[in-house]
Design goal:
This protein has 449 residues and is of the alpha/beta class. 32% of the residues lie in helices and 22% in strands. A hairpin with a 5-residue loop joins strand 4 (74-83) and strand 5. The protein starts with a helix and ends in an 11-residue tail after the last strand. The protein binds zinc ion.
Length: 449
């Protein structure tokens, strides 16, 4: 079990730089695929994730109700371009899949420049960048290009081709389920519906995939479920089909925008004070120099659905830069250079620490609660002084004093202002020496592996 000291250190001992490089390579592999909320791009992405972790893939037909929504028609795109009178492509989907507004209906026609302009989108503040736009729920077509490209187009006639299809088909999503000692679940969710955008969608995919890879190799107390879903409609569809199982979700995190260089942002669950809220805040406070914690708001990613009042699940959201707050957001500048291997590695390490706390947290009872037990006689009193010996002793005293069967170790760590790992280690030693016993449902660490 991860709660056991040997497993815990094995899980967390990653070489963040090296793993960060591997995560970046995986993002680079997925980057060119043209994803949307449905279609072959999502299927191809899921196939590649499935090459690393065990996945159950679901195909849900167009028209299927998903709570108050309906699974839309499936969108696929083969090619798109704008060509000038000489036949030269002046806007070319093959150069960037961001050039086409996602869910554009098929179109072929000849337009003059003014007519063409009515269907184009740019980022005037960043004239070299191509914006990312969608039109999921209105039947239209559009093209995205840089302001420079638009300004360079001379008056004249242009051939426009959007070789797309929008037909009855399926919505694709995937989940990786790793059973643990209990059916209580830790849910991770990330969106897989953006085309060539690295931080917004692929960083979450990479952290989720690499987490699942590592968790699959260790014994687990909790069961883990990793959802790879198209944003909004994907999580709504999953929730609609799993309404009877959501009670098992004890902790959850939406993972997004975890590859840029900014400090971490944690957005609390709707309830705000659940174990996952307290755990992430604790880990960030002790693991990284700078972080922002914000209260829940009904915007952002799929936490909006998991935290809708009819579900109200204990699901927070972990990011570095927040969606919509960085200039590169939803533009071609959210590319492979914008996500950094070191940031990806650190995001994975922080998330693993969160799992360690959740796995190792529990409530204990001091078996010798009348007066302090004599630590020296049991080999628990440090013979050599110094700051680390002092901290070790304080951790023992805090655990002994607070373990009346009502205070969990995370609570004790918070009260003692010490990292959870030190409090957990003290509890292990006390269990080993027969001074502490787990309350039912808490991990019996310290026992023989
Ligand atoms: Zn987005």
């Amino acid at each position: 079990m991860i709660g056991r000291p040997d497993e815990r250190s094995r899980l967390s001992s990653i070489d963040a730089d090296q793993v960060g490089q591997e995560m970046h390579s995986f993002i680079a592999e997925l980057f060119p695929i043209c994803r949307s909320i449905t279609g072959e791009g999502v299927r191809e992405t899921v196939r590649r994730i499935g090459g690393r972790i065990p996945l159950d893939v679901s195909e849900v037909p167009t028209g299927t109700p998903a709570l108050d929504w309906i699974v839309p028609r499936e969108w696929n795109i083969r090619d798109a371009y704008v060509a000038d009178a000489s036949g030269k492509r002046v806007i070319d989907f093959r150069e960037s899949n961001l050039h086409v507004v996602s869910y554009s209906v098929p179109f072929r026609g000849r337009l003059d420049l003014d007519q063409l302009r009515e269907h184009t989108y740019t980022v005037p503040d960043h004239p070299e960048w191509i914006p990312y736009r969608t039109s999921y729920y209105s039947e239209s077509w559009g093209l995205c290009l840089s302001q420079r490209q638009l300004e360079a187009l001379p008056e004249g006639e242009y051939d426009v081709c959007i070789d797309a299809s929008l037909r009855d088909g399926n919505l694709t999503y995937a989940e990786c389920y790793l059973p643990g000692a209990t059916e209580d679940e830790f849910l991770f969710s990330c969106h897989i519906c953006h085309p060539s955008l690295a931080n917004d969608n692929l960083s979450g995919v990479a952290v989720s995939t690499f987490l699942a890879e590592r968790l699959a190799r260790v014994e687990r107390r909790y069961s883990y479920r990793f959802l790879f879903v198209p944003g909004t409609i994907g999580s709504l569809t999953w929730l609609a089909r799993n309404q009877d199982n959501v009670e098992r979700i004890r902790h959850g995190l939406v993972l997004a925008c975890l590859g840029d260089a900014a400090a971490f942002t944690f957005k609390r669950s709707r309830r705000g004070d659940t174990e996952i809220d307290r755990t992430v805040e604790h880990v960030l406070r002790h693991a990284v120099p700078d972080q922002t914690v914000i209260d829940f708001d009904p915007y952002g990613y799929d936490e909006r659905q998991y935290c809708s009042p009819g579900f109200d699940l204990p699901v927070g959201a972990l990011s570095r830069s927040r969606h919509g707050t960085f200039p590169e957001y939803h533009t071609s500048a959210d590319n492979l250079a914008f996500v950094r291997p070191a940031a990806l590695g650190e995001s994975l390490a922080v998330t693993l620490k969160v799992i360690e706390v959740i796995e190792g947290n529990g409530t204990y009872r001091n078996l010798s609660p009348r007066g302090e037990p004599q630590l020296g006689r049991r080999g628990l009193y440090p013979s050599i002084g110094g700051p680390s010996a002092e901290a070790e002793q304080m951790a023992l005293l805090w655990v002994l004093n607070q373990s009346d069967g009502r205070h969990a170790l995370l609570e004790i760590a918070e009260r003692a202002a010490m990292p959870f790992s030190e409090i957990r280690r003290a509890a292990d030693r006390l269990v080993e020496r027969g001074l502490l016993a787990p309350v039912e449902g808490s991990p019996s660490v310290g026992s023989d592996p």
